[in-house]
Amino acid sequence: MSPDVWKKLTSDPLFILGTALFAIMAFLLVGGSWLGVHDPHDMSFAPLSSPSLQHWLGVNDGGMDIFAELLAGIKNTLVFSLLVGFASLLLGVVIGMLCAWVGGLTDQLLMRFSDILLAIPSVMILILVAAFFRVSAPVLGLILAAMTWPTTAKIVRAQALVIRKSLHIQAARHMGASGFYIIRRHMLPELFPVYLVGFAAKLRMAISMETTLSFLGLFDPARKSLGMMINYALKYYYLDIWWNWFLPPVLCLTMLIMATTLITLSMERVFDPRLGGFVEAGSR
Amino acid sequence: MPATPRKHIISAYLLAGLILIVASYSLPLWLPGDFVTAAYSGSEITLTAAQAQKVRAFYAHDQSLGSYMADMFTLKWGYSYIFQVPISELILEALPWTLVLMGSAHVLATVIGFIAGVEMAWRRGSLVEKFGVGGATVMAGIPELGVGVILLLVFSLHLGWFPAAGGKTVYADYAGCAQLLDLGRHLALPLTTLFLAYLPANFFLTRGSMVLILGQQFLETARVKGLPPVRIRYAHAARNALLPLATHFGMRFAFMVTGAVVVETIFAYPGLGALLFNAITLRDLPLIQAIVLFSSLAVLAVNLCLEFVYAFLDPRVRYVS
């Protein structure tokens, strides 16, 4: 990526705002664990007590510190989403590149398969797997990645087909470079912006999917998450807990989604609007 | 993106539908134990061998794939563990609510997103456009889970303007206008949430394609001919932005389902999503399986129909090969 584009990206207000939001979340996570919060699974506090110096956001119905729960929830959401983002991106880039380079029947079959995956609502498959087999969060994440690679693969394939025809690739081929060498030295680095946009869009999708699944109660109940906290807090709407129990997870979730959205939109704007990470990778 | 031949996509969808049905048929085989052990393993109740046998005979489909599919098409989808009624009854009862909710949210979001996208692209660089894009960006950044719960707390629990749950007032014998008003009041909050969730993607997509179209020469010609701006905007330019909107609907539809499940759950709207949530909480495995299969097939079917709509919308899309 040229320094010019990088400068344009880092001076884009959307990008700055998005990164700042991420920085706040990171600060909250690091600062929280540095200050020594309670164990999120410790159930020994007085249930439903109001915020105090001991418990910054009070205690939930199960006698657990809400601030500690919140930090654990953010961490779990981020770990899940990063796993999905990386796995899905890796699959998408490898398959997209393979299709563009090999072509023929392999390309045909993989592209048909990706059309099928795009048409199936992944949330339904995840719900089915989670409900029937009670798998762990990383396994669900990998299944989600296995269902969401096509958006990246299609964009990588289309862009790689364009680059493949360009003169310097032709020159490299005439000089006897192997396919692997050309892909590694020329094609993979040149598509770098595509990976960035794809990764940010996948991260956004994974965060909202993780909160959806945990809100529906499909993860292990002992696993702290923002969606689960919102679900539990909603059950006590008649108590005056909305600002210390209910609002913090909603705000944190919104900040995470907002950060990834801003970064995706800004990268699309700077690199190439036709990369379409936001719209194509399914805004939800 | 290079267009894939329509014929191949259609056959791929049909194949995907078949795979889903076969996977759903063989799902009990993959379970450790079966439906019965899966449902009763975590519970306090211990079944005797005879009872387990009886339950198994009632729920398990000891049938061939052929008769499974025949049952599927004749609405014999088995029984729900918890509600003890035919699954088809539950699903068909919930379906209209979901269709109304998702359908109206989608139509509203598409029409308003399209018009806003066209107008904003036309006024590119103006203050109005900057505010519009900024607003849509913020909207895209707020998850429907956040919008939904905040609308619920503010407008129905705090202010009490709208009902907090359900699709209609039970036991209230409304007729005519009063009934419609009651349905509308229940629909308002979930509809707003989904509308806000679907709107930004439509807006950005239309605006993006309009910006590219507006630079083209045929619009210069239209302007030189002295046509009124509204006519240039819609009859000449916006027409070309319609197709990307339609093709992207298929791509986003599978993701839109996620939002509908969440929103129906938050507002306890009596649709398929809330039914699915209840089935998950009560561990009603046959019902979960049926809803997942039904909705996945429905999404596939809609995508399949869209393939024909594209050809109708754009004369350039033809059945090649």
Can you tell me about this structure?
The complex is a heterodimer of chains A (284) and B (321). Chain A is mainly alpha-helical and 284 residues long. Chain A has helices spanning 3-10, 13-35, 66-102, 104-119, 122-133, 137-164, 167-174, 179-190, 192-215, 226-234, 242-271, 277-280. Chain A has 12 helices and no strands. Chain B has 321 residues and is mainly alpha-helical. The longest helix of chain B is centred in the middle third of the chain and has 38 residues, at 177-214. The chains are: A mainly alpha (284), B mainly alpha (321). At the A-B interface, helix 4, helix 5, helix 6, helix 9 and helix 10 of A face helix 1, helix 6, helix 7, helix 8 and helix 10 of B.
What attributes characterize this protein structure?
A: 284 residues, mainly alpha, elongated, B: 321 residues, 2 domains, 75% helix
Overall shape of chain A: it is elongated
**Quick check: average pLDDT of chain A?**
82
**How many beta-strand segments of chain B?**
0
List the secondary-structure elements of chain B in sequence, H or E: HHHHHHHHHHHH
Largest sheet of chain B: none
Pick out the low-confidence regions of chain A.
280-284
**Helix and strand element order of chain A:** HHHHHHHHHHHH
By DSSP (H or I, 4+ residues per run), the number of helices of chain A equals: 12
For this structure, the quaternary state is: heterodimer
Shape of chain B: globular
Q: Report, as a whole number of angstroms, the end-to-end distance of chain B.
A: 18 Å
Overall CATH class of the largest domain in chain B: Mainly Alpha
**Tally of DSSP β-strands of chain A:** 0
Class inferred from helices and paired strands of chain B: mainly alpha
Average the pLDDT over all residues of chain B and give the rounded result. 80
- Helical residue percent band of chain A: over 70%
- Rg calc of chain A: 22 Å
- CATH architecture label of the largest domain in chain B: Orthogonal Bundle
Strand portion of chain A, in percent? under 5%
Question: What proportion strand of chain B?
Answer: under 5%
